[in-house]
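the two lines:
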Amino acid sequence: MKRTALFILTASLCCAAVAQGFQREQFPEGSYSPVTNINPGSYPRVLADRSVMFRVNAPQAQMVQIDLCGKKYDMQKGQNGVWTVTTAPQVEGFHYYSLVVDGVSTADPASRTFYGCSRWSSAIEIPEKGMDDFEIQDVPHGQVRMVDYFSKVENAWRPLWIYTPAGYDETDTQYPVVYIQHGGGEDHRGWIEQGRTAQIMDNLIAAGKAVPMIVVCSNSNVRAQGMRAGGGYSWQGMQTFRTEMVDNIIPFVEKTFRVKKDRKSRAMCGLSMGGGQSFYIGLRDPEVFANVGVFSTGMFGGIAGAANFDLETEVPGMISDTKNFNKTFDVFFLSCGEQDPRISYTRDIVAKMRDAGVDVRFNSYPGDHEWQVWRKSLHEFAQYLFK
Amino acid sequence: MKRTALFILTASLCCAAVAQGFQREQFPEGSYSPVTNINPGSYPRVLADRSVMFRVNAPQAQMVQIDLCGKKYDMQKGQNGVWTVTTAPQVEGFHYYSLVVDGVSTADPASRTFYGCSRWSSAIEIPEKGMDDFEIQDVPHGQVRMVDYFSKVENAWRPLWIYTPAGYDETDTQYPVVYIQHGGGEDHRGWIEQGRTAQIMDNLIAAGKAVPMIVVCSNSNVRAQGMRAGGGYSWQGMQTFRTEMVDNIIPFVEKTFRVKKDRKSRAMCGLSMGGGQSFYIGLRDPEVFANVGVFSTGMFGGIAGAANFDLETEVPGMISDTKNFNKTFDVFFLSCGEQDPRISYTRDIVAKMRDAGVDVRFNSYPGDHEWQVWRKSLHEFAQYLFK
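prediction for all of em together
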C-alpha cells in the first residue's frame, strides 16, 4: 500500500494542515505535553516547575506572542524562524490562551480549542496532583447527551448537553436535577469540556459522596426579540434567561428525562455570569428551586469593588424574613477563587448574610477567575445536594 | 446594575476576547453571515453568488491570507488596518479554512472551529437549498451520547459519540447499528459536528425513509504499542483498527446499548480513510458485517491515479466467488464526489466489480473531497440499510 504516503500527504496539504512542533528532539527533563495538545510529544510543553514552553514556526512574522490568561509573553525568534518562550510557573488547572501573530490574536493550531472568551480559544491543561476526581476513573460511567429543545423566546431550536448518571438506562429511578450555567463568553459546552462535569459526577457518585443526579448544561446567551446580544448581568438579560429556564428548559427536561419534579429536587448553580443568574433566578424563584450555588460571580460588586449590592432589594425577604429564607432553601452555597478580584466583596457579602442570620455555606479555593476553582466548586456543591 | 458593563469589559479583556468584524455597517445586499460565525451579523459573509467576503483587523501584519480548501486568497489592506478579500463562488456545503497571518496558518477567531485537517480548523457552512434533511426539523429527535470505553489496544479510555434514535428511552426495541468512520485528520466528532448525522437520521426516520438505527462514531486513529501515530491506510493501521473495532468497540456497544447482535444488523461505513477502513474491515469480516458503505476513499488508486488495486487480493472471494460474495452482503455501496480526483479510479473499480458480477451500488454527487458529498452518501446509504 505504497500509495498511502502520497495520498495522506496530498490530503493534508489540501487542507493546509501543518501540525506544529513535531520535530523529534530532546525535550527539557521532567517536561510533558498536556492532554490539550493536538500532537502528543510536541509543544506546548509543561516544565517541571509548571512553567509552559511554547514553540511556533513563523519565519515571516515580525512579532509573535503568547497571551496566557491576559498576560502577554513576547516570543524570541531563533534558528529557522522558530519562535520560543517559556512562561512564568502556572497554577494547576485549565488555562485559555491565544497565539498572537503580528498583533492578530488567534487560536494556536498546536492545541485543542474550547468555546470561551467569546470565541474558540486555545487552552492548556495542567493536571493537579491528587485531584483524581477530575479524571476518568474505572468506575461506572454516566453519559452526556446532546439534545435540542425549542425555545419560544428565540423561536429557534437550542442545544442542551445533559449528564445522566450510570444506571439511567437500566432502572426506572427518577433523578433530581442540577441546572448548571457557564460564564460570560462561554456556552453549554463549558461545564462538560472545560469543567469535567461528567468525570466529577461519575467519581462522586461511585464513591457515594453524591447522590445520583442529572446535570443540565444550557446556553444562557438567550436573545429575546430586539435584543442585540443575549446573556449579561443586565435586568433584561436576567429576565430573558429566567423565562427561558422556567418556561422552556425545565418543562423540556421534565418531559424528556426521568426526573423528580418537586422544588426540593431542583438545583441551580453557575460560574461568574452564571453565578449571578443562579443567585438572581434561583433565589427569586423559591417555587422552582430549593438549592442554589453561586460560584465566582461579579454580581455582588462589579470588578471595581464597591459593594453597593443590596441583598433585600435583590432577594426580597432574605434579610427581612431570614427565618423563612433559611427554611425555604435546603442548600445555599457561595464560592470564589482566592486570587480572584471578586474575593473581597464576596467575603463582604457572605459576612453581611451571616450577620443577618442567613444560612449560607461559603468556600474559597486557590486560583483566580478560572476553571479549576469552578470544578472544585461543583465538586463541593454536588456533595451537599438532595440529601 | 451599572457595574455590569465594567465587569463584562474587564472579564473579556482578561481573556483577550476581541470578536472581529462586529462593526454595524452596510452589508452587501443578499449577503448573510453563516451559522459557523461566532457573531451573527458579522464577517465572514456569504454573498448572493456564494462567494465569501472575509474581513480581518490586522494593522501590524505584513500579509494576511485566507486558505479556503487549499486555495490561498491574498487579502487587501484597507482603512485602519482592516484587511478584506472576496473569494470565488463556492459550492454549497461545509468548507474548512485557515486564517494565515504573515505565513502562520491559524484558526480565525471569527468562526467556529471543528476538528479536521489534523487540527482545530475554522469552517464556513453554505447551506444547500432543498437539503432540509441536513437541518433540525420539527420531527421527533434522537440524542447523541458521549460515552467512554476502555481500549485494550491503547490501554486507555477512548471516546464514542453515539446517535440513538427518537423513542430509544420509551421502548424496549433492539436496534441495528451503523459503525461510521471519519476521514484522515478528523476524529469521532466529525460525523456529528460536520456531518449532521443526527439531523440526517432524525429526518429520514421521521419520514419513514430509513428504519430506526443506532449510529456509532468512533475515533479510528488507534495507536498500538510502538506505533508513532494511529490511523492511516497502512497494513498496520488497518489491522490495529480492525482489532479495536471487533474486540473493543462492538462488544462495548452491544453491552451498553439495546442493539441487535447479528451480522445482518451491523453496518460499517466511512469517508476517505474511513471508507478504506470500511472496505478493508467490513468486507473481510463477513461474520461481523453484512452491510458496507465506502465513501470517497483513496484506497482504490492513490490520489495519483494508477489503479493497480487488486480486488481479489484485498477481498479474497469477491471476484473468484462472486455469487457467494453477493449472497453474503445485503448492502455494498460506493460513492464519490464528481469533482474529487478519486472519481476516475472509483468509477474504474466499480466497472471492474460489475464486469465480474459484483452486486455493488454506486452514486456520485456534485462536489470535491468534502462533507456535502459525505452527508449525501450517508443520506443515501442509510435508506438501503436493514430492510
